[in-house]
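Me: I'm a chemist; would you kindly supply a protein sequence with its structure tokens?

Assistant:
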Amino acid sequence: MADLDTLLASAPAGSKDAAAKTAHADQVFQALDKIADSKIDVTVDAMTPENGDVLLKYIYKGLETPSDRTASLFRWQAKLAEKFGVGSIVRVLSDRKTV
């Protein structure tokens, strides 16, 4: 499995292929699941703003359907907002290229 940075850099944003988007999202969520909550800060701190925006898109996609990982996704979202600010949230919500 690819690491999180590689997955975020290769996100099929804007693609019309729903199956590819779903498969890629599943890989991102699997990568997130493998990162311990205690490592979220370190992982986000090492991210570029571009990868932070892409990850935030996946977080919002994951939050569309409540699941076992919902609480973890909120922790990721909080850390991303702390590091990249409200601008990241605005960029993600206004971007037409979805993941």
Remarks:
- The helical segments are 4-9, 18-33, 40-45, 49-63, 70-94.
- The two ends are 19 Å apart (CA to CA).
- The CA atoms of residues 53 and 91 lie 7 Å apart.
- The first helix runs from residue 4 to 9.
